[in-house]
Amino acid sequence: MIDTQTIERLRHIGWRGQVLPGDGRRIARVVAQHRAGYELHDGEQVFGAQPAGHFLKRGLDPAERPAVGDFVEVEPGKPPHILTVQSRRTVLSRAAAGERYERQVIATNIDYVLVLTGLDGDFNPARIERYLSLVEGSGAQPVVVLSKPDRTDDVEHRIAELKARLPEGTPIHAINGKDPVGAAILAAYLKPGDSAVLVGSSGAGKSTLTNTLLGSQHMATGDVRSHDSRGRHTTTYRALLQLPSGGCLIDTPGMRELKLTGEENLDLFADIEALAENCRFADCGHGSEPGCAVQEALHDGELTPDRWRNYLKLRDEREEQATMLESRLRRQRGGRPATKPHGQRGSREKEGW
Ligand SMILES: Nc1nc2c(ncn2[C@@H]2O[C@H](COP(=O)(O)OP(=O)(O)OP(=O)(O)O)[C@@H](O)[C@H]2O)c(=O)[nH]1
Ligand SMILES: [Zn+2]
Under CATH, which architecture does the 267-352 domain have? Predict the structure, then answer.
């Protein structure tokens, strides 16, 4: 049955497929994942579902299981079952502890990651860089959104500072989160069929901006947490918000609580890593060694001291994190040493990082 209405509805929640499945099966989007199962959205309503047995097989790469953002084929029933995961156009992931280092999928099929930071005292270019490093390689496009421009006299200067620092072409917008006219510029990233997520530290203005983007619709949206024990207006949890501009905002606890733990990959700094390979000595500490390519680049202004420091910080955190993971895994194994000692990456680990 060719059901144009169904296709239309799915388009609104970001589906780009062409053909609906037969046999009474349907397509829906994963909007939340719990221990007890999945929450799916079909463009109209939210319903629960269980993964089919083959997703639970031991040894299956966890990245192959349904994840938030996935479009899945569902078999009706009580409960409905997720049969297949449609191919993903983008995958946001991070390294995670498990039996070995592996990628944990955070969200899929996200077109834009809006990285939100206040221009007030919270302004922190290094943190923005870290968020971008998380987005690197996902296929999603990062967009830097600077909120609270009304809280500083320094907007132009801070934007210039960021521009100099971030990869060329990264969009940067200063937007008062309470101003619908200003926020309208983000419609470019929230067009019909686009999916975006909003990330940023607590208080950056995510809820404020979300409500502004939702406009008059925001009170009418479903899935609002019905009771709030604290009795005050807090962020209502709505996993998938369909915006008036036609795009949708995926608002998952997984993204909201996204902590930067040093697990990010450092692709953003690939140029620095490449640079360091030109040092005369293979074990160059990039201090006062002769023939150090990093020192030379710093001297020439090719590499800014800020960026170099941030790179070193991220690299150290990553090493620290790896050491912690390693000892945790060793404890889990009952004290046996790791099969792959820290610092000696096998091909699997390399993929993971
Ligand atoms: N002056 C000004 N205040 C803003 C702006 N955007 C947000 N705020 C204020 O900043 C505070 C925090 O905003 P929220 O939207 O709750 O921040 P959040 O990122 O959702 O925070 P969490 O829910 O903790 O993750 C609120 O008091 C907002 O009114 C802005 O552009 N200008
Ligand atoms: Zn060097």
Answer: Orthogonal Bundle (1.10)
- Delimiting residues of CATH 1.10.40.50 domain(s) in the chain: 267-352
Which class does domain 108-256 fall in? alpha beta
Q: What are phi and psi of 257, to 5 degrees?
A: -90, 10
DSSP element (H, E) containing 255: helix 253-256
> In tens digits, what is the pLDDT along the chain, a chain of 353 residues?
558 899 999 999 999 998 899 888 999 999 988 888 999 999 988 899 999 999 999 888 888 999 999 999 999 999 999 999 999 999 988 765 444 556 678 899 999 999 999 998 888 888 888 788 888 888 999 999 999 999 988 899 999 999 988 988 999 999 999 999 999 999 999 999 999 999 888 788 888 999 999 886 554 333 333 343 332 233 334 688 889 899 999 876 666 555 555 445 566 677 888 898 899 998 898 988 899 999 999 999 999 898 898 888 777 776 776 666 666 666 666 655 544 444 433 333 323 22
Top CATH class, 4-87:
mainly beta
Going from the Cα of 203 to the center of ligand 1, the distance in angstroms, rounded, reads: 5
Q: Using a 6 Å CB cutoff, which residues line ligand 1?
A: 147-148, 150-151, 176-178, 200, 202-208, 235
Q: What's the complex ipTM?
A: 0.95
Q: Tokens 């990553």 label which residue?
A: 318
* Protein residue closest via CA to atom 29 of ligand 1: 208
Q: What's the CA gap between 235 and 291, in Å, rounded?
A: 54
Which atom of ligand 1 is found nearest the CA of 151? Answer: 1
* Ligand 1 centroid distance, CA of 226 (Å): 22
- Token duo for residue 34: 């719990």
Structure tokens at 216: 């008059």
Give me ligand 2 centre to Cα 317, in Å.
20
Closest ligand 1 atom to 235 CA: 23
